Queue: 2 jobs
Job 1
Amino acid sequence: MQARGLLAGGFLFLTLGGALQAGVPARLEGPVQVLKAVGPEGKGNAEASAAWKQVASAPLPVLPGLLEAMDGANDYALNWLRSAVESVEERGRKSGGKIPVAAVEEFLRDTRHHPRARRLAYEILQRAEPERARRLLPGFVKDPANELRRDAVQLLVVAAGEKVTGDRAAAVAGYREALGHAREADQIDDLAKKLGELKEKVDLQKVFGWVTRWKMVGPFDNTGGAGFSKAFPPEEKLDVAAEMDGKSGKVRWVDFESKDDYGLIDFNKPFSDLKEVTGYAMAEFWSDTARPVQLRLGCKNGWKVWVNGKLLFGRDEYHRNMEIDQYRLATELKPGRNVLLVKCCQNEQKEDWTKEWEFQLRLTDEQGTPIVSTK
Amino acid sequence: MIPKIESAGPIPFFAKTMKTHPIVAAVLLALAGGLSNQAADWTQFRGPGGDGIAPDTRLPTSLDAGAVAWSVNLPGRGISSPVIVGKRVFVTASSGARQDRLHVLCFNLADGVLLWERQFWATGRTQTHEKISAATPSPASDGQRIYAIFSSNDCAALDLDGNLLWFRGLGRDYPNASNSLGMSSSLVVADGVVVAQVENDSESFTAGLDAKTGLNRWKLDRPKKANWTSPVVMKGTDGKPVLALQSSKGVTGVEPATGKVLWNYDQGASTVPSVTVAGGRLYVPSQGLTVLEPTSDGQAPKQVWRAAQLRPGTPSPVVVGDRVFTLNDGGILSCADVADGKRLWQLRLKGPFSSTPVIASGVLYCVNEKGLIQVVDPAKVTDPAKPESAVTSEFDLGQTIVGTPSIAAGSLFVRSDGKLWRIGRDSAL
């Protein structure tokens, strides 16, 4: 299984033309590149430790250049660079130095920069000139940096909340506007609840963009957890007309559509409450173009996911916990018909809290904006 | 005995040039301040011995608001224990909607002023049970560096001034190494190796990371089963350190420098409370409480006794002199004889409990989840039928406390999701 790097996060942000625009002094270019060269399993750590001290001793005017150096950095390197930025800022503040706020703000405003670097720039600005940062915040409501966007959305939530008692219509409009911009599940849930209290219905299936129409087949065996590693017929050849040998007889694909607000695809519904079994769910997903997406899955059973026959990831953990967007897997859609296949394994546990044999799945962009099938 | 003195900062000029008696040198260094006295430092979860005992510190046995030297707000959640090295207090925390901002904070021991803070972005999964957070495992120190690990299995090493020495994203390197309820195993350091017990239902392992570079010295496959216990370091029969790794299968003795498995106890163990080492014996939460004594022949440790009625809850067992104590989640504190496990008395404390008691001068400091500190002095129990006399003081912090406190400098250090307290002052002794 190609596991490494599939959990979406870093590695996705491309450099801005490959050049440091604000730049760092020539003497720091080498050390910065050493920090950006760190990788998995501690690769480059020894060299980075020495380079870090050089970078972290830079003067305050270098801050924007260091922030810019985060463009294109992998997740390990981002942490090396972040801590160097913190050290520069902390030492500068303690010595009474002046944060280059104009340059930091300019960096922050440029949405081509790494979202995490921009959030860090915002926090540096907040500490240096809180009012300046506060004035900028409402403008981030559509921002690609989720932490900035979240805080801006929260301003809308608070503003709408203040209107609830005097102007219900304005409060509803405010909450609706916030909901339109919210991308994180807890914020969406909170807004749905607030609107519900105002007797306003929210189509959560649509807001989250769940994939709700599937074909399902099962049960196959999962005695002793062995089914997780065993390739049953749907993994060998995906034929929705086929009849297959299941755990206790012949099995065929059946249609299933979730009506659940949270898009739960519940194997217990077509197949009843079973234990030590494996099920598969298949969905067609149509796209106008080739595009990168995040496949976001929630599941508390053992699972594997394939897109167009390619295994993205799998995990054999049972009944620990489930949440929306629990796993974020980077993948690509091709133009036209795409096929999603989910394997979902149920184990032997008998407690009430181990009945669930289900998952929820949606496709989004990197910010969490739902991408829905065009057919 | 002269405590080992190690520098926690720049070496004073006289230390570099002095040619004097070692005792005088030690005193001079200690007077210089900001230095680590490892005997008095609290370097890891449950203290330097991993047994919850402060080796040379007394605390007030009567606590009230006047005993609070200082308290500070924390920027994020956490139940990890504070680590105290020299004149500095190190705490980890996590923040953000997804708990993916990982903080390492350093406070001045004397007044709680923040000396420095470093943040990291989690590279692994941060999902946890709501009761805990990404900052659940405790950091550890070897007196020169602070090593911090989080539920996301991100691990960073910093010097005591906050300079980053290395960073590992173990949750990114090994992407199925996670637990959807959260990871909680704390770090230990032995023989120049930082030991990260990353055990879970899927990609389960324990890694020995080089303390200087963070690179894998060894990586040991471990039982595929969620495990929230923490490793302890004990002295082997040959005097060398041995790592005791607990899991659902039992306890495994491992050579910390190489990862070589030395012995196995295979009769199962809890995956929540951790083994405690005292007097060369292992007090294992296994089928109640099982006491083991390692042998020198490489065979499984010999069972000394087993007591089914001593069943620790989330808190780990503690041993004070010739008494062993277990505490269940509801607050029943059981006291037994270390010789044979015979229960001597039981005391109902005000629960519920998650944190392990810590001990100074034979007195237990028990903090329940409601933030109530109950001071228990077992020496006060004269009648086993009336153990209530052991509770000498109660002090309510008024916040949820799930993490285990730390002890140093005549003080108890307690943290909640949002606050860190130093309770006690040198002058109070």
Job 2
Amino acid sequence: MAISAERADGTVIAKADGRIDSSNSREFHSELEAVVTDSDAALVLDFEDLAYISSAGMRVILLTAKSLQKSGMKFVLCSMNDSIREVFKISGFDKIIDIHNSQVEALAAVGA
Amino acid sequence: MTTTESQHKHKILVVDDEPDLEPLMLQRMRRYIRTGVYEFVFARNGIEALEALDMDESIDMVLSDINMPKMDGLTLLERIPDVAPDIRAVIISAYGDMKNIRIAMNRGAFDFVTKPVDFDDLKFTIDRTLTHIREWKEALSARDKLVVLQNELNVASMMQQSILPNKFARNDNYKLFGTMQPARNVGGDFFDVIGLSDGRVGLAIADVSGKGVPAALFMMSSRTLLKGAAMRANGPGEALSEVNDVLNEDNDACMFVTMIYAVYDPDTGELTYADGGHDPPLVVHADGSTTQLPVTEGLALGVLPGFDYLQHSHKLAPGDTVVLYTDGVTEAINTEEEQLGLERLREAFEQNPPQDAEDAGHRVIDLVNDFAGDVPQFDDTTCLVLRREH
């Protein structure tokens, strides 16, 4: 798992690749916290290159969603493979977190 | 070790202000008292109990009522660690008294039984508590740092094993079987079977986020809260809503648990279930064909307070087998890094319909083990099976 990030007009686009499970979820969390600053308006987390996410990784998504919500920042996910999309659907997480099919749609949703 | 332990007499302090309990306990437990398995001592309130614990270091566990004069059971729970930190307490509460059960669990009670006391259930609960205490003491006695680290996993694993039912009631109308194969780094799966009124039975399967001791602790409270809510709630949807609201209190760590809770009525064959963001159960029909139970648009518990969990009903035909499972089954990985997936699970049953509930459960575990080969699995593999016989 590695995270790469770019920033344009206060919107951070972060891409995670590989697998996120209990062995690296802590690292995933700290890297994700490191890419956003207080002056950012939105975080788009792009899962195009992510193969798998376990419940430990889902917990980090939830922690991130709650902390960004508190600081008034928008947070959306995009470009998931079918099995990850299914995990978000079954767990019901897609009811509380915005998920988009592509990065273009995700950027439009956060108004970037 | 085991032999000496089993010969050791366990001393249980019973705390209740009602004088009736003492003769009843001595009478109903006389077989175990005579054979030297248990020894009972009695106290009439929390203050007497603390005095007894202070004086007598050989007491292993406490069994306490809640409402008592001078010092009640809930206050006693708070005070026990001061005098006897390794003691575990089991609370006797009024049937469905969720409020006090919740407070008791938050104050460190290990388990609870409800009034009127079912002495078979009490015996089982006492034995489970004593096993827990013994293993806890063994885990604590290790000094070496590496050993302690390993022990932390052992403690988590032991907590997990101690809450799983290992006996399944025999019944002509339906059969049950559940099994869990733990991952090496200890996940947070559990299942439970809860006896309800009118011969109905509650079935739960759940998967807690994360691993290790935090997951095990969250698992313990989820299981206990569900047990309490299940007895009181009017249906599985209401039970999950109640558990969810409690789990959301002070959940800054954002732990969550996915869960299916179902109630089976053997008189009608009706299975009523609610979905807490968990994989949909699979129904295997007598001819081997399979269908997934429609899930009810649920959400993992502990995520959003006030969420309204809906419930569905499905009538089982005689010979139908319901397989509740966790994602450790469908997300098992083989040497090619492929996931096992739902299709392989369905095929395993379609080619060869299960003979009974136990056969179906073993079939799931065997499928995972054959598929995974030598690849270490990162998640617990758990299933709970209900088969309608008549």
